[in-house]
DNA sequence: GAAATAGTGTCTCTGAGACATTATATA
DNA sequence: TATATAATGTCTCAGAGACACTATTTC
């Protein structure tokens, strides 16, 4: 195995972001409109080149901040931090018609943002329900550029399976949330209805999963609900069971 | 987001392989001795450059065949095929002191090979127990080059968690195996002792997990054991529970 | 015979699913 | 008042863990 820098073919390396949130009871992904060829005018996942002296995760966090203003670390204040993790890497030789591009995809789980349309330097950016991007009969106008539909599908599947055995569903909620809000996250991500009583028993009975924060809220209507924040426990054992098995 | 080929910094892209097998009741990883600087003489994970017109998974399968002779597809004969899946991508700017290298790691689960030392064009290649490569006090002579200890740790963790809820443990076994042999795989990978009777009930009671093949063997000593092959079910639901929770 | 592994059965307890019921807000 | 959501409780059944016991081989 000779190892000569002149031996290896040059690659471009990018990061692509699957940014998921729950809005109006639907799982949504952040999409941006492409301003140039190829796939000009089509929607795509946000992303960009990794810089020469930049780590992959750093590049993903930078792109995320540029597109949404979201940060992945608590900035001292009480803002909920988005969760960021590496998803997978896509390197088909012809996934980009211009050159050889290897893209490292990252998955971001974010709370519903106050600003309806994310700011940043991206042209048109919007939240699109994943059902409309990944359904059986996706309209041509909604079809994602490159192999981004595949990347999005992988990200959605990762999110669906990870909230089973981790406390990551709280990443979709504001810093303080109720049991019912957390349940509606599960229902939106999985696309199923969960029994409110069994759900309540499960999440409040798991030590370290939820920490009561003291107040109550009626923002969902009905009887005031206790407010919680995510506890330190990152693993959920035994897992939350996804119905329809 | 201007998108000009001259904009992007050039990267080298490699694949690194975490090839795991179970030998003599121990989880082992394939390691090769480095023949040149940096880290000359140290052990490392097998791997190499991705070619210009080659898919990432293809490059991983090619490197695997070169180093071990293993194939990832059934070749028509009854040889057990190794399992190959993408693990993660490592791109710290200084993980290779010579240039910017992004490495896509793949995880391979292989049955114990008949040949004690894998062939191929790699110089010294051998199976090393992962406990010796990842323990708390790893000897200097056993320390892996680059960030390969981290990659190996990620691969081992992936394997440990995946056999919980999938039928992948059978990838460590020959094409036909007994319940006891499968149990010893779990015990080696997890490093725990499992109750043989509860294990037997679990795996034989899960529909589609094991298919009886008709014969028996006494290669483990004792009463003859029925032979099975892996069934079509790839998911194991409910999962096999890892003790010490 | 002893010793090893294979295979079946039995008991108990945790926990998920399917309900009922009560509590407290808004319209 | 009706209606929404929140919170607690009760029953049943599947399944994991902890065993006992029998079966069939090798030494």
UniProtKB/TrEMBL annotation, chains A, B:
The keyword Iron does not apply. InterPro entries: NUDIX_hydrolase-like_dom_sf (IPR015797), NUDIX_hydrolase_CS (IPR020084), NUDIX_hydrolase_dom (IPR000086), WH-like_DNA-bd_sf (IPR036388), WH_DNA-bd_sf (IPR036390), WHD_NrtR (IPR054105). Pfam families: NUDIX (PF00293), WHD_NrtR (PF21906). PROSITE patterns: NUDIX, NUDIX_BOX. GO terms for molecular function: hydrolase activity. Residues 10-150 form the Nudix hydrolase domain. It comes from Streptomyces hoynatensis. The keyword Hydrolase applies. This is NUDIX domain-containing protein. Keywords: Hydrolase.
């Amino acid at each position: 195995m000779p190892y000569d820098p002149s031996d290896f073919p040059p690659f471009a390396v990018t990061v692509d972001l699957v940014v998921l949130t729950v809005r109006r009871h639907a799982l949504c992904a952040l999409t941006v409109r492409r301003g140039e060829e190829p796939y000009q005018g089509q929607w795509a996942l946000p992303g960009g080149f990794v810089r020469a002296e930049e780590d992959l995760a750093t590049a993903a966090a930078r792109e995320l901040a540029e597109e949404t203003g979201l940060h992945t670390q608590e900035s001292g204040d009480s803002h909920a931090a988005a969760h960021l993790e590496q998803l997978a890497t896509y390197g088909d030789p012809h996934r980009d018609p211009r050159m050889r591009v290897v893209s490292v995809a990252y998955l971001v789980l974010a709370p519903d943002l106050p600003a309806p349309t994310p700011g940043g330097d991206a042209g048109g950016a919007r939240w699109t329900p994943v059902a409309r991007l990944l359904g059986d009969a996706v309209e041509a106008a909604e079809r994602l550029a490159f192999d981004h539909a595949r990347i999005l599908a992988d990200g959605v599947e990762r999110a669906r399976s990870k909230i089973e055995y981790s406390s990551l569903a709280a990443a979709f909620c504001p810093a303080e949330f109720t049991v019912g809000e957390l349940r509606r996250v599960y229902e939106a991500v999985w696309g199923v209805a969960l029994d409110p009583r069994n759900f309540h028993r499960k999440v409040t009975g798991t030590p370290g999963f939820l920490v009561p924060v003291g107040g109550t809220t009626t923002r969902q209507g009905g009887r005031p609900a206790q407010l919680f924040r995510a506890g330190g426990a990152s693993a959920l054992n035994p897992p939350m069971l996804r119905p329809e098995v």
